[in-house]
Amino acid sequence: MSRAPERQSGAKQRLRKIEGRHNALVKQLRQAFTRAERTESGDCAIEGVRIMEEAIRSGLRLSAVFFRESAQNVAEKLLPQIGSHVETLLVPDKLFDSAVPSESPQGVAALVRLREFALDDVLERLQVGPAVVVVGLQDPGNLGTILRSAEAFGSAGVVLGEGTVSPFNSKVIRASAGSLFRLPVVLAVSAGGWEDASWKLRAQGLRLIATSSHKGTPLDQARLDGPSAVFIGSEGSGLPRNLIGQLDELVVIPHTPQVESLNAGVAGSIVLYEAARQRRK
Q1: Which pTM was predicted?
Q2: In this predicted model, what pLDDT tens digit does every residue of 29-62 receive, in sequence order?
Q3: Cβ(223)–Cβ(274) under 8 Å?
Q4: Quick one: the chain helix, strand, coil %, rounded to 5?
Q5: CB pairs under 8 A, 24+ apart, for 236-243?
Q6: Residues 33, 60: contact at Cβ < 8 Å?
Q7: Same domain for 105 and 224?
Q8: Do residue 146 and residue 270 come from a single domain?
Q9: What domain count does the chain have?
Q10: For FRET with 236, which of 23, 87, 97, 229 sits at 20 to 30 Å CA-CA?
Q11: Quick one: 87 and 144 in the same domain?
């Protein structure tokens, strides 16, 4: 009976209480969430117990961890997993809620340093599975699903083309369930621009394949076991016409005619599963 108060006392002693909304770290957290981009020091913002545990399990560097004042039970659970060198802050409920985007915050958020990858890192992993190229996809849930499936079914990595939602969007991070922390994800802009990234994929001898909702090779007849790049566009407009002309093959996923099309997250996941199935043969 006497141990619980001791643990609570230890947690309280470690947490530094923040009162004002003008605290520099709270400002960084709010801006990182609002802008869906890295801070000047290279951190991105995450929130939620499960995502925090995935970040810790993935060995990410934590810059600062923020606990909601009324969620000290969450602090009790997570503090033993957080290195003593990491700054841990106790934030009033109202201030915490103003900084995080979730409508029902779980009481913990953090600034973390994601690993940075280049296109060459993806190309060096082609033995793992196909590269995935996402172009113009705006739905964060769909992108998060694709990232999760890319890790689950084996992918060399994911290249994000122009017009695609930021991978640092909080909904993308949540839907990826931690896969963003481990999978090589490259912005085409950082790879020298989209045209340069596309040329490098082609120069590696990859077969460039795209999903299609209406026409193409039936998925079970497509050859997906060799080095390839799978292109996924947005649900509404699909892939740009000029890009489709550069591809080797369109793949269609058979479905009932009552359903017009599958969303990008589902379609991409099915293609990645089929590629994994063919590699195991």
Answers
A1: 0.90
A2: 999 999 999 999 999 999 999 999 999 999 999 9
A3: no
A4: 40, 20, 40
A5: 237/136, 238/212, 238/213, 239/135, 239/136, 239/210, 240/135, 240/136, 243/135, 243/198
A6: no
A7: no
A8: yes
A9: 2
A10: 229
A11: no
Cα separation, 131 vs 126, whole angstroms: 7
Record the tokens describing residue 60, joined without a space: 């990410």
CA dist., res. 110 & res. 219, Å (int): 41
Amino acid, single-letter form, for residue 109:
A
In this structure, are residues 107 and 207 in contact, taking their beta carbons and an 8 Å threshold?
no
CATH number, residue 145: 3.40.1280.10
Same domain, 101 and 152: no
111 - beta bridge partners? 45, 64
Structure token pair of residue 224: 């997906």
**What confidence tens digit (pLDDT) does each residue in 176-233 have?**
999 999 999 999 865 555 667 777 888 888 999 988 777 889 998 998 988 999 999 8
Tokens representing 56 are 């810790």
DSSP state of 248: S
Cα 54 from Cα 146, distance rounded (Å): 17
SS3 238: strand
Give dist(CA 131, CA 229) in Å, integer: 5
Q: Which two tokens stand for residue 65?
A: 């961890």
We report the CATH number of the domain holding residue 35 as 3.30.1330.30
Domain boundary residue, one of 87, 113, 139: 113
Q: Residue 87: which domain range?
A: 3-113
Contact 26, 16 (CB under 8 A): no
Looking at residue 234, the DSSP 8-state letter turns out to be B
Q: Are 26 and 110 in contact (CB under 8 A)?
A: no
Residue 68 is inside which H or E element, if any?
strand 61-68
Tokens encoding 43: 């951190």
DSSP annotation of 79: G
Residues paired with residue 229 on neighbouring β-strands, in sequence order: 131, 208
Q: Residue type at 98? A: S
